[in-house]
């Protein structure tokens, strides 16, 4: 939950203007959040005015907020003044003493010390930075995180004076007794917009999560500016692991900087806040629709489901020799298809998935019986089909062995994706052809019409539903990169299906 203290007109090049939210309204925002949902941790960012600072401090005291992360936003990354000079003293006197953690960068730390009339030594290395953190701690916060990004250090922990010397940055956490040093490799990047805000927010979120685990099961979230999440009101502060919460937040922001998009804007662009999140490009339960419209799938899928072979078959114009060759090879392929589904059952851990594979195998058995009846109509006996000298076509070998290889070398879901083009495509092609005006039924003299009827039948459509449901259930658990790998398997298997229907695929020589 967020209480917005100011609006800024800004982009990656700088801040053009600031519109301060009326302080009284800021207080109402905070009160509305804390009086209803409460919070585990508060992160304070840009405050904009002395009066706003006083309102925020009063609100936090009134609602007994025990965990406060204060980012003393005074100057933006682009150099714009974000906190008036007369407000610095109010920030130091009213908010620092109630802060769990203060997170200044080096310029902000020195500004706070100057405002308190405290003399300090300009830092020349790590030891001076530790002293600076200790001096800021004496201003009242329970702990200080002095951010070291403004002063890169050499490998010997001294201030770097040239780009070649810049090796590391060190963030220094000091709680009054112990120093915790968090080292990061110095990054040469332009996208550092909002890093301080992101770091403080991440620390507050981590602290809230720790409190959630140690106290009652509540919900905690944080964003920017003055940010609120679920609080155990009126309870004493619990022991929290501040170093761990801080270290994880630093790593999060560092990764966000490394993975940011350098093409955003002409100045200091934003970091990538979503680097460690799995964001799937489809809504749960609708992967198949996404899959079939995917740029790498759609053209090949159209070639497959609108192939001339089933089209001519439905119209009764397919040459008989081509259909006979197809029947023979499809019968041989179905044996491997059944083997593959048996392998899928073996790879399954849930009884529902095992049963689904068994259901599909039983349908394949019925499909093979239909093939036998077709073959008998065209003078091909079962003995002919299963004769030891009967050879599989190269297209049949390539397709069946590809699917079996995926089954042996990949996981259960990859195998399902390799099988899916056959299961889904036959059904889609048959449903299209079943209603086309150009199609001819058996009553109209089409000897091939039973092929269409087989794949629009209820039992086959039920098998499609079962197969789709299995994929939909498991695909939502995959990472985005794994989804792309599975799509590639689907595309390759679809290519095999197209080749299986090509008119020259099964010509006997």
UniProtKB/TrEMBL annotation:
SUPFAM superfamilies: Heme oxygenase-like (SSF48613), Ribokinase-like (SSF53613). CDD domains: HMPP_kinase, TenA_C_ScTHI20-like. Residues 1-234 form the Pyridoxamine kinase/Phosphomethylpyrimidine kinase domain. One of its GO terms (molecular function) is thiaminase activity. GO terms for biological process: thiamine biosynthetic process. One of its GO terms (cellular component) is cytosol. Residues 294-502 form the Thiaminase-2/PQQC domain. Residues 211-237 are annotated as: Disordered. It comes from the Eukaryota. Residues 216-237 have a biased composition (Low complexity). This is Phosphomethylpyrimidine kinase. It comes from Capronia coronata CBS 617.96.
């Amino acid at each position: 939950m967020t209480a917005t203290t100011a609006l800024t007109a800004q982009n990656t090049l700088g801040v053009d203007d600031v519109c301060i939210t009326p302080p009284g309204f800021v207080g109402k925002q905070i009160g509305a959040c804390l009086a209803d949902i409460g919070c585990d941790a508060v992160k304070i960012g840009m405050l904009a005015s002395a009066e706003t600072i006083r309102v925020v401090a009063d609100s936090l005291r009134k609602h007994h907020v025990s965990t406060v992360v204060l980012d003393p936003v005074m100057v933006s990354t682009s150099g714009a003044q974000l906190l008036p000079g007369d407000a610095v003293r109010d920030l130091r006197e009213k908010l620092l003493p109630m802060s769990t953690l203060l997170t200044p960068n080096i310029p902000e730390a020195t500004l706070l010390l100057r405002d308190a009339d405290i003399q300090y030594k300009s830092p020349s290395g790590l030891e001076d930075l530790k002293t600076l953190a200790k001096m800021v701690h004496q201003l009242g916060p329970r702990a200080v995180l002095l951010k070291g990004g403004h002063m890169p250090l050499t490998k010997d922990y001294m201030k770097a004076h040239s780009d070649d010397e810049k090796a590391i940055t060190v963030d220094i956490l000091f709680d009054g007794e112990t120093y915790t040093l968090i080292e990061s490799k110095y990054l040469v990047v332009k996208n550092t917009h909002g890093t301080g805000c992101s770091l403080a927010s991440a620390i507050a979120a981590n602290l809230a999560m720790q409190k959630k685990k140690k106290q009652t099961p509540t919900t905690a979230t944080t964003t920017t500016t003055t940010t609120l999440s679920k609080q155990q009101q009126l309870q004493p502060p619990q022991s929290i692991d501040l170093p761990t919460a801080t270290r994880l937040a630093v790593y999060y922001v560092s990764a966000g900087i490394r993975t940011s998009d350098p093409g955003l804007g002409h100045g200091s662009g934003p970091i990538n806040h979503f680097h460690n999140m799995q964001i799937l490009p489809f809504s749960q339960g609708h992967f198949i629709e996404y899959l079939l419209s995917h740029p790498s799938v759609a053209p090949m899928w159209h070639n497959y489901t609108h192939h001339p072979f089933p089209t001519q078959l439905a119209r009764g114009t397919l040459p008989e020799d081509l259909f006979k060759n197809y029947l023979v090879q499809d019968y041989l392929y179905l044996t491997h298809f059944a083997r593959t589904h048996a392998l899928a059952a073996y790879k399954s851990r849930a009884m529902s998935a095992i049963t689904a594979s068994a259901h599909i195998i039983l349908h394949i058995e019925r499909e093979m019986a239909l093939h036998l009846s077709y073959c008998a109509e065209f003078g091909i006996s079962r003995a002919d089909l299963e004769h030891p000298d009967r050879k599989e076509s190269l297209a049949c070998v390539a397709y069946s062995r590809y699917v079996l290889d995926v089954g042996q070398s990949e996981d259960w879901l990859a195998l399902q994706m390799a099988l899916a083009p056959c299961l889904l495509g036959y059904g889609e092609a048959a449903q299209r052809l079943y209603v086309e005006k150009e199609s001819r039924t058996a009553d109209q003299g089409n000897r091939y019409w039973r092929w269409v009827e087989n794949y629009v039948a209820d039992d086959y459509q039920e098998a499609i539903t079962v197969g789709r449901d299995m994929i939909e259930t498991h695909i939502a658990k995959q990472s985005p990169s794994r989804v792309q790998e599975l799509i590639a398997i689907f595309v390759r298997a679809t290519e095999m299906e197209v080749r299986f229907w090509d008119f020259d695929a099964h010509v006997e020589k």
